[in-house]
């Protein structure tokens, strides 16, 4: 079967991703994936960050923190850190 260059690249790329991704080579785990544009990478990172943020919020939902006799500077730093 005759393959044009584009189809050949596509076939080898798919094989490389399927076969090489996650393989251990010289003690290092390989990541092989489709090349992404910067906008795609940023969107993926933003989506992951939002997902982790939502998980963290739901995990600590309804948890109370009481700080008795602590300096105001510490109290304000803690309030900033846990503000949702």
UniProtKB/TrEMBL annotation:
Entry superkingdom: Eukaryota
GO molecular function: nucleic acid binding
Protein's recorded name: Putative poly(A) binding cytoplasmic 4 (Inducible form)
Lineage: Eukaryota, Metazoa, Chordata, Craniata, Vertebrata
């Amino acid at each position: 079967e005759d393959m044009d260059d584009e189809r050949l690249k596509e076939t080898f790329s798919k094989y490389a991703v399927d076969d090489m991704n996650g393989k251990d080579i010289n003690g290092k785990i390989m990541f092989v994936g489709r090349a992404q544009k910067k906008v795609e990478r940023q969107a993926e990172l933003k989506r992951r960050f939002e997902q982790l943020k939502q998980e963290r919020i739901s995990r600590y939902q309804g948890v109370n923190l009481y700080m008795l006799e602590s300096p105001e500077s510490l109290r304000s730093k803690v309030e900033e850190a846990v503000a949702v």
